[in-house]
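For this section, I looked closely at a protein sequence along with its fold in token form, which I now present.
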Amino acid sequence: MNQQKKKIHYAWWLLIGLSIMVGVGKNGISTAGGLFLTPVTQDLGIGMGSLTLYFSIASIVTMIFLPIAGKLMAKYDIKLILIVAIILMAGSFAMFGLMSSVWGWYLFSIPMAIGSVFITQIAGPVLINNWFKKHNGLAIGIMVAIGGVLGAVIQPTVGNLIATQGWRFTYIALGIAVAAIIIPIILLVIRMSPQQKGLQPLGMDEVETNEGSSAQQVTAVGVTAAVAKKSSAFFALLAFFFIITSIASFSQHIAPFAMGIGYDIKFAGSVLGAMQIGVLVGALSFGVLSDKIGAKSTAVFAMLLGLIPVGILLTVPENPTLFTVAIIIFGFVVSSLGTLGPLLTTALFGSKDYSQIYSTAAIGLAVAGIVALPGYGFVYEITGSYTFVLYGLAIMLVLNALLVLLAFKGKKKLEKAGLWK
């Protein structure tokens, strides 16, 4: 028993592999997509709003597919699902490099979104929830933080590649590279549950010792999906997901925003890389903070902190140092999407029907993409600046802080009604 305790639990190895998979998929494809917007619109003569409509199509597909994805992951071999997912996601992204009409982006955004649902949205929270019964917040923080480290390398590299090799070559090279990195990780590291390795979830023995309950009882604590979906806490969480995703969606417009006020694409790539440093620090901080002071207080703090970068970008965007500082802090706030979303779900509803509740609430993420991403593009087309978008971000940050408080009031109602079991 002592010898077994000295070994590193496989959950940590899975976390590293999972973090690389999610981080490379998110930064190599999802976040990097914003760097291509200005070069593509200029080269092909497409309006910013028209091109960014492909994000809306991807978000509609995501919204439809999220509930299905949760069921597929529970039913079928996770390795097969994730390999198909990364081929769809990375392959579609590479195909953008061969397109000459905006319809190509509209078409290939569909399989790209289906693959992305598994790789960047569902796999991380579900697997961490399966493998970690203790240090759950830290594990999610580490996953997002590793993504931040990878993004700090990937974003400037993509910016330089577009500047030197062109956007077509970069789309294709990036799609192939992402698939080549992720497929071996899926095959070698990813497992759906500890039982597949003959293990218990990390911290299960400590939870049993401290609380005197069985593994079966620990995993069953919380609210059923049917009850959760009818509660005010759920609707507040759904709205929170919608708004935080709308806020985070602005990261896709940082490159056009920077280039619109006179910076070049290399600077835009460097700034997006710097944003990932903020994501790194934020992910670790929010993970630890939520373990210490709770998801509620951490989420409110994160939303109010977001007012600082918005203020800087509204007042002194032409200062490159302050612009970079603002984007780093914005990255700190953006990390709350990957960190606090899953943690708030667990804090509000427990782990009884976690995957079903989270995947349904995450529809808010998809709806935000439908509205916000092209919405920001059309605001820029109409006004010639992102000023109104920034004011909108400030309002949304305050609203989200209030929604967190409302969600936890809803949780108290569930507890009083005896529905938390």
